[in-house]
Q: What sequence folds into this?
């Protein structure tokens, strides 16, 4: 039985298409079959032979624009989709890019190529690299960031750490991503004390350090916490879109009243990049983070306690700055298992447009936390 | 420098802990090291040697409760966490279970063991298996479901399909998950026409078929669409938590005004289960789906166009019904590339408590769609 109705007239489609580059593992013929399946799976999800000629075939179906060898083990298929099928929704865009195909092994989303007409639907990061630099009054050098932790300290203790970090010259003092609203350090008290502590240090140093509050929470709470944090004097927000959804981060970034820079945290997103299928580091932590409104993207640095390679980290950097219409470039914020010795190597890889994220390592350098921060900053200033 | 502050007093912790079973690939010593790292990574994310004796070590740190061989290639570690560190938040619970550990390859969340005191914070599915059966007035047999599609049809055409499906005896007629609010079939008109079409068929058949609207959308839109769908007469909602976040689905399920059964769709969740790391099928599509309030969980059936094995599908069934306090059991809804010939084999695997989800296959059986549905229903009624 063929679907041979009048269907949607072709004139509803502008002809504008966005393209997704898939890397497909397997032999050439297997990959070709998989590419053809993607065209269907991500759009009509219906037997193609049952669809009559017309607008659905001409516009709705995915279209293979390029098919060639990627490397010995995989092939590259560039597939385009009508911008209209994403309906201007970030959720539906992600669904078209990788929704059901995420369930098929051996397929990686390598790159997104988005036309201006599509990008115009998205505001992207409010600050981006340049806006964040202006906010912190740091025109050239890399930014320095650290986290208050561990979970289990009281709000007073966390705020005391925040004070010392800011006094030592850290630019961005963020919550650890595991700090939400636990009994040990309730959200409202924590953001109030930490914001005040950083403001106090700023009065002493003359710096413009900011406290960044983790607002990852239930979906009703996220925006409430964003407003609470802003009212308390927080200078930025951190959210884990793997837990709350990418679109909620976009809404935060779009919210005129909230109006704070946003750091995206990779929690619960790892499975997209650790298997032989998923998304490239650059797409997930770069392009999608930008489309979702993050101003800085946190990820595990190469050589730390996670497994990202130097190439994968470079791919993230590429994703943070690849041209995407008016969508601003954003800061890579590599962290995890870092220590001071790695600063030169990182500058060589990332350049100056990065946020150094250093956690436990700051405590190891010596007994005086403020001095440890100062050494870190001096080293970056001297090299960067 | 040791964190030697007063910290949080131990009395803030009840001593109640939830447990996560991790399967860790590698040698015994590698797996042991990884298990110890998980205890830290998922809680304090801070060098353990820098934390003094006291409440943080005693309560906040993860604790290895069991460590033994899983199979030749992997080991099993049961790690417990204080319920308080999840702060009663689904987002933070998922963060503790697998947040940063998702970024480390070769670790799978195999099972969740949650104490009643923890489960009491979650309502879970509003209907579950029994509630959905009562709603549809189908006490024993498997339920029959299909989807209106393909994307590209007009609302009238989709509604006409919905009418035929309902007339043929399909119990649940859902939107394809790619139908959101496209120009071809705008959300509001679609749910109105499809709900009316199913109601009209019900008047003719005496059945209680329902139309289930896909409300996956931007986070502000999801609840709005839920209300619009309910007002239009939809009998259920479908949402893809991979796109909107698990917690938003939980909020939908908890919403007294919305009060409709919810189907969860696996879009954008595949990477959790396709690599050698991630979550087990039973945890992701069973236990987490239930905790997040789904009444039925859609996933690709074994032997279809996806790669799930029969064992993996059986694991999902186990996850939908493993005892979890007052959290109801839910329906497995296997689909994807199904056809009528597979009904007997599926009944043998899943038993009667399942939702058959059949899409394009219904069109292949013969020229008359209503008759095809009737054949499907007859077969299930005769066997089941």
A:
């Amino acid at each position: 039985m063929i679907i041979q109705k009048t269907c949607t007239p072709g004139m509803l489609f502008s002809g504008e298409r966005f393209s997704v580059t898939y890397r497909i593992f397997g032999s050439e013929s297997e990959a070709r079959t998989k590419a053809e399946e993607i065209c269907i799976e991500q759009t009509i999800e219906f037997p193609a032979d049952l669809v009559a000629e017309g607008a659905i075939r001409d516009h709705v179906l995915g279209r293979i624009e390029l098919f060639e060898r990627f490397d010995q083990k995989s092939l590259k298929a560039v597939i385009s989709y009508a911008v209209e099928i994403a309906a201007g929704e970030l959720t539906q865009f992600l669904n078209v890019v990788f929704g059901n195909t995420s369930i098929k092994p051996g397929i990686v989303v390598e790159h997104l190529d988005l036309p201006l007409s599509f990008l115009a639907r998205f505001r992207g990061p409010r600050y981006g690299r340049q806006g964040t630099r202006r906010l912190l009054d740091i025109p050239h050098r890399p930014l320095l960031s650290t986290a208050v932790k561990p979970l289990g300290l009281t709000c007073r203790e966390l705020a005391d750490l925040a004070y010392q970090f800011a006094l030592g010259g850290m630019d961005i003092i963020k919550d650890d991503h595991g700090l939400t609203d636990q009994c040990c350090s309730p959200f409202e008290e924590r953001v109030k004390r930490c914001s005040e502590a950083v403001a106090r240090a700023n009065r002493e140093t003359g710096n413009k350090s900011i406290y960044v509050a983790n607002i990852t929470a239930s979906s009703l709470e996220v925006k409430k916490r964003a407003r609470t944090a802003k009212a308390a004097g927080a200078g930025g927000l951190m959210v884990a879109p793997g837990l709350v959804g990418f679109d909620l981060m976009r809404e935060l970034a779009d919210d005129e009243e909230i109006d704070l820079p946003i750091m995206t945290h990779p929690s619960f997103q790892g499975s997209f990049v650790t298997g032989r299928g998923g998304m490239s580091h650059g797409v997930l932590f770069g392009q999608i983070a930008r489309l979702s409104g993050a101003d800085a993207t946190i990820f595990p640095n190469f050589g730390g306690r996670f497994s990202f390679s130097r190439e994968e980290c470079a791919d993230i950097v590429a994703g943070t700055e690849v041209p995407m219409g008016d969508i601003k470039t954003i800061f890579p914020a590599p962290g995890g298992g870092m220590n001071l010795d790695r600063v030169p190597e990182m500058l060589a890889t990332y350049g100056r447009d990065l946020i150094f994220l250093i956690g436990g390592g700051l405590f190891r350098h010596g007994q005086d936390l403020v001095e440890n921060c100062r050494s870190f900053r001096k080293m970056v200033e001297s090299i960067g």
About this structure: Chain A touches chain B through 98 residues (CB under 8 Å). Chain A has two domains: 10-119, 128-383.
